[in-house]
What does this fold into?
Amino acid sequence: MSRDTNAPNVQQPPTEPILRIETGMHTAIIRRISVDAANRFLVTGSDDKTVRLWELATGRLLNILRSPIGEGNEGKLFAVAISPDGKTIAAGGWTGYEWDKHFSIYLFERETGRLFHHISRLPSVVSHLTFSPDGNRLAGALGVKGIRVYRTNDWQEVGSDTDYGDRSPGLDFDRAGRLVTSCYDGFLRLYDGQMKLIAKQAGPGGKLPLSVKFSPDGSKIAVGYDYSTKVDVISASNSAGLLKPLFSPDTTSVDKGTLASVAWSSDGSALFAGGQYVKSGVRQIRRWSDSGRGSFEDCPASSNTVADLISLSDGGVAFGAADSSWGIFTASGQRTRFVEGEIADFRDLLKGFQIDESGSRIRFAYESAGRSPVEFNLKERRLELNPAADSRLLSPRTQATGIVIDGWCNTDEPKLNGAKLALNQYEFSRSVAIASDGQKFLLGTEWNLRLYDRSGKQLWNVAAPGIAWSVNISGDGRLGVATFADGTIRWYRMNDGKEMLALFPHRDKKRWVIWTPSGYYDASPGGEDLIGWHVNQGKDQAADFHPASRFRNVAYRPDVIDLVLTKLDEAAAVAQANEEVGRKQPQLDIAGMLPPVVSILSPADGAEVALPGITISYIVRSPSGAEVTGIKALIDGRPVSIDEGRSSQEPVEADRIHKLQISVPRQDCEVALIAENKHTSSEPAISRLYWRGPAPIDDLKPTLFVLSIGVSRYQHAAINKLSFSAKDARDFADALMRQSGGLYRDVVVKVLADEQATRDEILDGLDWIEMQTTSRDVAMVFLSGHGINDRVGRYFFLTVNADPDRFRRTAIPFSDIKTTVETLAGKVLFFVDTCHSGNVLGSKGTQPDIVAFVNELASAENGAVVFASSTGKQLSLENAAWNNGAFTKALVEGIDGKADISGNGKITVNALDYYISERVKDLTRGRQTPTTTKPKTIQDFPVALKR
It folds into this structure.
């Protein structure tokens, strides 16, 4: 591993795991983007401290690169670039200062994600990076003290200029090797191929030139400005005068905002610019014809600032935006790809952010300006979309007797009774809330939450995870609550500002996760892996990331979440929760139980194969030091047998290359490996393989095996009876029988309804579907009725003959269901509708909560696609008007053809999920929210044909 021997070894990045949000997409502004010369890959860098690698043609996320990070700003990435050959990715920003007292540029191998080198000793943050077209040099622009240029064969500095009066936000190479830069001192600078300054000129159109781009032929330079609506084209030719103004494209109709980011089409015939320019509520990218001299058209791009533009080889451009989205426009200005951010947009919410007396019910909105409102009930873990007005929910108080707060909204000069409140330089105030007793007020800013008393004395200040768009104070004065730009809502103890809880509501309006600072969490089905643990591996290596599900056995604690806001102390909440169930769980120790990390060395992702028998080369690390006890192989998400030439009981030696043999189908597929230790299992390492051998001779369709179970008429008087669960099971089976001869060669069903659904019959049914299903088949299990959790949270399905006094012997434990799912050979879909009633057994069991049940079945190592009828502690509703439960009615309609969203006659997992979700919300008026959880090792696939 290459190291910077000139950098002093002051210290290392923090070793304690750091809890982070992970949606599969950025959760903060995408500041920079870059593409390789062949336009195969796009990389994005963000304030969320990650670099993401995308397949440009499809928009598929290929990898997430994680540099060492710390708290606060440490690790924010302001710059990213990929080399022209696509082999190297450079990233920088606020990087390395916490331990080196200087800033760094990190260099990664694109194919493996390995951090192989870092350039240190930089005096300031890195604001922009770019490779020369020949790939021989890397240039970096800094926050202060100018620019640096490095030779890429040994990463030694070969040029610099420190005579800059402010930060440098932009630079670009032309094909001849010249470099142009911008600086907030007002000047543009041009260097020749030997880094000699050959021209320096003030930007003609503004004091703060930002983006600079050479035209493809190197004769012109386009310039965009911060805090200006102007764009300039200046000369890069000696004959016309270096850096002399040539013309300014037409921006007369841009009456507000900026066009700060610029890019040329690949042939130079069109010029693009974007920034804060907004029209009809959408940020626009303006495209001019005739190299910027001609007419223009405005192209709607994103909901927030277009932060970066880059040319594509086909004449179009790619963009990255502040709403964490990216997209592609063609040469003619048509948006052909848009990868949207997945966080709620809390901008301009303000008075729409309401909370109740205790702070346990909150109302917010998923979209800016209060659009798509929702209420979250923490006690019931219930999301209600478009809720009715409720006088018990109060907006933040912004006025009180004797307290006049001015300038608190989007200014850097908030005032209390005319006196300015001290903030940091460039820190803007965004929101305010006054306590009900009028003695304190909470100020939300760009970087902080600040509590003041009524005289203006600051009582505490805590760093914010993003802009504090809205703040509120509970009516009882115990809690301050805020919405942030990272998509989270967080609760703080008012007496000292200590964080109590954080909620991340996914923008899909179904998934959510809520957690304590230590990492105890509760989540909706499919929601737990929206958070996870970043673990640094030193300053010279890429960091690891472990989703929360890897620690489910100890960290999934709904009972702790229930108590935190009451106790206002996490440790006290844990102690009481443990005492109530007789649990003796030590303090959560993430670092001590880290999973292994497995990497596939070959075949590489995207490799072509022509023989069904392949050899996989892999290596495993064990960050916790625990013995690696086994390896699982999966193909398209389902476990397969492997031949490693070793005993299945023999440990896998860490940090050594291993090989195994598996057989792959004669088709494109995904191969995944999962490593295990005594604590947990790893995240899957995945390689997508493309079949290039002969087509399969046997094209026999799969058989569908269906086990459909429903109980309505329970035999024991103490168990509440249901109206439609048994009918739901029959209707589901009938709908699938109609699929015989279509997608499936045959459909074989076993229905266990009411009196047939005894414990013995259900266990026999699980054995039946396990024995019948082969690797080429599909298995579906449908479960409708009552489910309960015992006092320590273990889940049971109640059979028709369940006995409240002996339900461990008369009900079906989750472990039996899990065993069946993980051993089924083919694709597995599980439909669960078991949350029909809260107090099913009185004191014998707790309110049903299927979250852990669903999430474990859908984990990568078990590999089932799970459709759940509701989320959290929501109840599943049934109604005589529907003649079914809402979930089953939507499910059957979808299978029969209404889920054919694309109109091609095929109903896929994703299409069925979408239809069920929308239909159930419509039937129940938003009171029930179905969710579908699919392992990341399984791609969308058809499950039915429109009949």
About this structure: Residues 112 and 569 are 43 Å apart (CA to CA). The chain has five domains: 164-245, 249-339, 350-573, 595-691, 703-945. The first helix runs from residue 97 to 100. The domain at 595-691 is CATH 2.60.40.10 (Immunoglobulin-like).
